Amino acid sequence: MKNVLSYISAVMLGTLALSSCDDNFERPPMIYPTAENVANTTVTDLKTKYWSMDRNYVQTVGSLADFTGNNDDQNKDVYISGRVVSESEPGNVYNSIVLQQPDGTALNVAVRTNKLEKSYPFGQEVIINVTGLKIGGYNGLMQLGAEGTYNGAPSMTFMESADFEKVAELNGQPDVAAVDTLVLTLDDIADKSQANLIKYQSQLVRFDNLTFEEPGKTFSANGQTTNRYAKDANGKRINVRTSAYASFADQVVPAGTGSVVGILSYYGTDWQLLLNNITGVIGFDGTTTPDDPVNPPTPPTGGGDGTEAAPFTVAQVIGGASGTGVWAKGYIVGWVEGQVLAEGAKFDATNVTAASNILIAETADCKDVTKCVPVQLPSGTDARTKLNLKDNAGNLGKEVALKGDLAAYFGTAGIKAVSAFKIDGQGGDTPAAPADPVTSINEGFDGGTIPAGWTQQQVKGDKSWYTPSYQDNYYAAMTGYKGTAPFDQWLFTPAIDLSKCDSKVLTFDTQVNGYGSTTSKFEVYVLSAADATKQLGQLAPTIAVAPESGYSQWVSSGNLDLSKFSGIVYIGFRYEAAQDANYATWCVDNIKLNVK
Question: In this predicted model, what pLDDT tens digit does every residue of 249-306 receive, in sequence order?
């Protein structure tokens, strides 16, 4: 193993170059913070003092005498220092500051805030008075933070940002060059002895000559935190874990062999690597290389402007055109089977098994997947009914214009949430009438996806409902985090025939993490169609109330009487938020109607 200078480019923080043609212009001096205190204990000594091989435990940091054995130090505080080696802005290292000292030993500091990047940027030295703070394990990972529980046992959790600010001092300007990245092999971390866990946990590390096992898939799948494994030449593996909130969640896992840089975290009984950013995926030589996050592609000139009169071309969509509710056009050339575009692209209309998507290209005879755009066809809409090749084989080779959102789909530039289309001179934008309405709802989202028959409508914003899980329980959730406000996003049940319901009583459970949001709202409506404009009435359920921090308990809606409604109806769950400093996460589960 060896230490190398950080892989992070100095342009992350930069050095402000000041110049002027006026030599007499007097600039004020640049002032950087100077900490009042200095470290008197190392991170290594702190971790060693309070280490336990128990996966979940909590201890309280004592006085300096506990480290020196000198009674004169009984009333002296304990200070540690380190440089920030984590990046919070990309969203993968969340509610945590990782501090690393010069010898490489590092410590995860759990802080409940999503605004760490500005105050604690990469390379910033921080001095912390740890006396009286809680330190211990969260399912195997040592953290400095606050006391909480894990499966009912004492465990570490996040301290509040105000509490952290009271004990933390910045010292000097951020210095990227002062951060070292430790180069390891997977053999180096095979030994999970106490000494190695203390030494390596939370370090910024680099593994060379790795190959991802699932190239072509996205780092995060189906709006959920996802494990993607990379392996060395001997088959040893490490979990590269990506949050659904990461800015690079939709980027494609690359093929070939290269290096991976990230925070070496730990969960349960094994290591996991948390990418700070997509720039930590280096030198892979396969064809599915990630997009450049610093210099995104510029949409090619020529083509349309995204209006109905002048739709974007396929080349523009692939080249980086963006927008919601915009028009694009191309020829239907195929469809996608499975989850990997490169492997699942089908350029025919025989034995079609998926009605949920089509592929479009610039020309009707294209069979090059890199020149195609996948199109998601929303369930319950004319777009799916009339465009899919499973039921409309004759559409192959036809030109189509689509109104939708330009977003990553199958890990590449795609079109989602199609709300209108034109093919053969005919259009459609109204959800198709269901051929077979349901007579009951009993949905717990246990499949880990938005179920078949359920639909969404994105009235405003660029975020969708998704299905995360916690402690093996799946549920539907919606948040505005890392999105573009305002938000007005709907999740609709399948059509329900109330005339065939013996019990017209609706129940469900909600949970919320408010994150200090002042505008986020959760509402429930009865509608005549899966369309936000077709409201028949708003319901008044009991819903969760956001606590000061963290998630609320699950709260039952109570029995909601739908007897005043009749015929075919839909239940719509609405997430709405205006521009805000933070956005709540609303969760819904166990939706039941006419269930005995």
Answer: 888 888 889 999 999 999 888 999 999 998 889 888 654 433 333 333 344 456 788 8
* From 221-225, 297-301, 562-566, the region with the lowest mean pLDDT: 297-301
Q: Which contacts of 347-355 are long-range, i.e. CB under 8 A and separated by 24 or more positions?
A: 348/396, 349/389, 349/393, 349/394, 349/395, 349/396, 350/393, 352/388, 352/389, 352/390, 352/393, 353/390, 354/388, 354/390, 355/384, 355/388, 355/390, 355/391
| pLDDT surpassing 60 at residue 4 | no
Q: How confident is the model at residue 45 (pLDDT cuts 50, 70, 90)?
A: very high
For residue 147, CA distances in Å to 133, 451, 546, 551 come to 9, 37, 20, 16
Q: Which residue, chain included where needed, has tokens 């975020």? A: 463
- Going by C-alpha positions, the residue among 422, 337, 321, 425 that lies closest to residue 374 is 337
In angstroms, the CA 489 to CA 487 distance is 6
pLDDT at 431 over 50: no
Q: Give CA–CA dist 49/119, Å, rounded.
A: 29
Return the residue matching tokens 């993607």. Answer: 228
Q: Which of 94, 115, 123, 86 lies closest to 264, judged by CA? A: 86
Tokens of 499: 């005339």
What average pLDDT does this structure show over 197-225? Answer: 88
pLDDT, tens only, 570-595:
999 999 999 888 899 999 999 999 88
CA distance 101 to 180: 9
Residue 382 tokens read as 């004319």
Backbone angles phi, psi at 262, to 5 degrees: -175, -175
145 close to 157: Cβ distance less than 8 angstroms: yes
Can you tell me the distance from the alpha carbon of 116 to that of 282, in angstroms, rounded to the nearest whole number? 25
pLDDT bracket for residue 109 (50, 70, 90): very high
Q: Give CA–CA dist 558/553, Å, rounded.
A: 15
Residue found by looking up tokens 């802080």 in the block = 111
Q: What is the pLDDT of residues 46-72, one digit of tens each?
A: 999 999 999 899 999 999 999 999 999
Alpha-carbon distances, residue 457 vs 24, 409, 412, 530 (angstroms): 60, 17, 22, 8
Is omega for the bond preceding 486 within 30 degrees of 0, making it cis?
Answer: yes
Helix or strand run (H / E) with residue 274? strand 270-274
The token duo for 541 is 């359920």
Lowest mean pLDDT among 138-142, 248-252, 542-546: 248-252
Return the number of other C-beta atoms located less than 10 Å from residue 115's C-beta: 13
CB 140 within 8 A of CB 151: no
One-letter-per-residue 3-state SS of 62-97: CCCHHHHCCHHHCCCCCEEEEEECCCCCCCCCCCEE
Q: Is the pLDDT of residue 359 over 80?
A: yes
In angstroms, the CA 210 to CA 296 distance is 25
What's the rounded Cα separation, in Å, for the pair 92 and 87? 8
